[in-house]
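Sorry to interrupt, but I need a hand with the structure work. Could you write out one complete protein record for me, on any chain you like? Could you add the entry underneath, on a fresh line?
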Amino acid sequence: ANYGPNPICKGCLSCSKDNGCIRCQHKLFFFLRREGMRQYGECLHSCPSGYYGLRTPDMNRCSRCRIENCDSCFSRDFCTKCKTGFYSHRGRCFRGCPPGFAALEELMECVEGCEVGQWSEWGTCSRNNKTCGFKWGLETRTRQIVKKPAKDTIPCPTIAESRRCKMALRHCPGGKLRRRPTKTKDKKKKKKNLMERAQKQHSIFLATDKTSQ
């Protein structure tokens, strides 16, 4: 007897025309398929997506995975492969990996990531290895790698960062404050040069004009 495209009684020890397989041959898994309001038994070598094989002395069965977003599982509460877009972590499926774990994209798994310690205090504000003589400098803080990642391809977070800071001492003892020329001074100097050039060209023009007369 056939139901749909699949032979109902294939691999069965006992079979019903209306309900399909009732008992399966040794090593096969009994799977109860539902289509609308109707259900019938099948005997399979492996369970379909969302189910796992449960072996018992009486008969092997396909049991549904109880883990959310799981595609295939090893047992009722341990997923081995998550649905597309989800990462596998300790038998569960997640949209993103938990804190302390990094996503391994090629396997869609969460592995132990790079663990870093707390930030140190901000260091002394300095510039060109000097703590005076400038108005602005940089201060830096660091943190240590506590645990290296399980995979070399997983990068560690930043372990050093710097920020702009204002110097505590603008004048070095016995020295002068180094200043950069401001934009205003640069503009005035440029304007003065243009004026001098224009006056020079005007003088040359007047001298040439007198000579031609």
Observations:
- Confidence is low (pLDDT under 50) at residues 1-5.
